[in-house]
Amino acid sequence: MWTLLSKLNKNLIVAIPTMMVFGFLYGWKFEAQGLKSLILPFTFLMVYPMMVTLKIRKVLERGDGKAQLLTQFINFAIIPFVAYAAGKFFFADRPYLALGLLLAALVPTSGMTISWTGFAKGNLPAAVKMTVVGLSLGSIATPFYVQALLGATVEVDLLSIFKQIVLIVFLPMIAGTLTQNFLLKKHGQESFQKKIAPRFPGFSTLGVLGIVFIAMALKAKSIAGQPDQLLMIFLPLLLLYVFNFLLSTIVGKFFLPRGDAIALVYGTVMRNLSIALAVAINAFGVAGSDAALVIALAYVIQVQSAAWYVKLTDRVFGAPLPNTLTA
Questions:
Q1: 320 φ, ψ to 5°?
Q2: Predicted structure pTM score
Q3: Mean model confidence pLDDT for the chain
Q4: Is 271 helix (H, G, I), strand (E, B) or coil?
Q5: What is the dihedral of CA 124, 125, 129, 135, to 10 degrees?
Q6: Which CATH number fits domain 2-315: 3.90.420.10, 1.10.10.10, 1.20.1530.20, 2.40.340.10?
């Protein structure tokens, strides 16, 4: 079982598109509305394991303040407004598609921020800090951004959104932290890091795949009736990610050392799409399925682009110095 989960986690480039196809086929053949009740448990399955292995105390460590400030400035002062502008331009008459684009840009960082930073030999402690800070700030700020930017065209229930955020972010965060403390006391730091912690990311992957499957199943009949809408959604998403990668790469290359620059790129481009997806489906009712489709397609671009960026990292930032510590 652990081997299978590990393979899934390492092959998201294939696993996510495959699950999207299966979700589409299921939703095309069967009634998928009943699957909505599984979004919340799958989201918990995605977030909770990540929180068990997340070293929240690293937020208190010093040494990368410039990288942290630049990362959160890009995350909250630039990217949401670029997404909003793109949504207004491409989806002027489809406000819930614009909502999906905005939600996909509002909750930064996920466990993959840390993973991809590690693959690219970036600054892992900085990536951990970006993940904790970005996830917390994004979760709190999301309802207000949606209300301020799209409140005139989308029915926004702030209380409902906050409830979803508590259920899918802060409750798993608390539960994961308590679990981590328990396991550390019982097994010790070394055993936890080498034997226990590596098993948890696979469960997060199952949560991601489950949510992607459901999102595609819910929109399958609509996609089958209008297949051209996939291209219509894909283009602004692609442009948003290209802009994000270019901006973060330029900022990182000119203002930060190699390790911090890599962490900044993945700390700004990697979005917590599972949380965005759960909010879209649970907080916006039937209309939220349009937003969910946008977010589901964002998975494909995000994972594929992150993998390719790892291969290009040394060309962009140079090879890592020998004996450089990244963890």
A1: -65, 145
A2: 0.85
A3: 86
A4: strand
A5: 30
A6: 1.20.1530.20
